[in-house]
Specification:
The protein is of the alpha/beta class and about 300 residues long. The chain has one domain (about 5-290): Rossmann fold, CATH 3.40.50. It is about 40% helix and about 15% strand. It is built from 9 helices and 12 strands. It has helices at about 10-25, 40-50, 70-95, 125-140, 165-175, 190-205, 220-230, 260-265, 275-300; strands at about 5, 25-30, 55-60, 95-100, 145-150, 150-155, 180, 185, 190, 210, 220, 240. The strands form 4 sheets. A 6-stranded parallel β-sheet has the order 2-1-3-4-5-10, sandwiched between helices. The chain has a two-stranded parallel sheet with strand order 6-9. Strands 7-12 form a two-stranded parallel ribbon. It binds NADP nicotinamide-adenine-dinucleotide phosphate (NAP). NADP nicotinamide-adenine-dinucleotide phosphate binds near residues 13, 63, 82, 102 and 151.
Amino acid sequence: MKKITIFGGAGQLGAELRSEFSARGYRVHVFGRSKADITNAAEVEQALAAFDPEIVVNAAAYNQVDVAEKEPTTAFQVNALAVRNLAVACRQSDAQLVHFSSDYVFDGLGGRAYREEDEPHPLGAYAVSKLAGELYARAYLDRPLIIRTSGVFGPAGLETARGNFVEMMLRLAANGQTIRVVEDHVASPTYAPALAARAVDLIERGAHGIYHLGGGSPISWYDWAAKIFAAAGLHPPLKPTNEREFRTAARRPKYSALSNAKSESLGVAPMPSLDDAIQLYLKIRASRLSQRGAIAEGASPRP
Ligand SMILES: NC(=O)c1ccc[n+]([C@@H]2O[C@H](COP(=O)([O-])OP(=O)(O)OC[C@H]3O[C@@H](n4cnc5c(N)ncnc54)[C@H](OP(=O)(O)O)[C@@H]3O)[C@@H](O)[C@H]2O)c1
């Protein structure tokens, strides 16, 4: 039975990777940030020494794209230098590193879904840090697997401080104010459980090098928001905006959808449709919220 160590286990992707590997019979050791901070080389080494895994998966990341413009050092420490820690430790223990990266390594000027051989050109501190992480993995290891993804949303986003785009939209809808979302930026929203299953498929096929796994449908953030509200049966005031009107601290790629053709050529299944993924997400979300409610009721004093 293969041993897997996952870092960043409490995040949206980390939680799904844990379930996917466990369901397929692997021995899985999961580290959240409180158990192993990947910026701390000694903690990474100790984690690997304790379990001696064949495969090390890095699902940890600093994902605050705009805040990274104010604190580029933190973004670089987590997304780049910490990947060096992992790569060095994997090299010492002969483990394979599986690392996740981002569609934001591209500048978005191509106007079509990006393929693995396209030239990266990051536009900001977060994007540079993610590209540097890829480079560190490739600098120290001969066969790392680097999987780039886009706009991740998974049920664990209900629990994490950072959440995801679906949670943000539902929160704004509950506030009742007009919601403005850019219609001139396109990505590939990716459902975390589908991403985790396909990432494990790639690992089981012995893939190494760079692979893209984005949700199958390139879509503007505005259209994605509209789909979320339609699926949730909500009708908040939603208005399109654009990057000229809606300025953010970080520049973002305009068209950063990812092509999965290389992964699919290895026999990895196409991603589910975005409509199906949102329906699944909302169903799991509702069941987790009702469980939470039941637990809270059970905890309250009875008359
Ligand atoms: N989310 C997206 O839209 C998106 C888009 C493109 C690519 N990606 C990539 O996809 C991968 C998975 O992202 P995700 O959506 O699952 O992210 P996420 O939900 O934000 O989870 C990231 C996890 O990393 C942990 N972490 C942060 N700093 C750490 C450190 N120094 N040591 C150990 N753990 C640390 C976080 O812990 P804390 O909660 O304690 O900070 C969190 O549990 C990442 O590589 C990300 O860059 C994500």
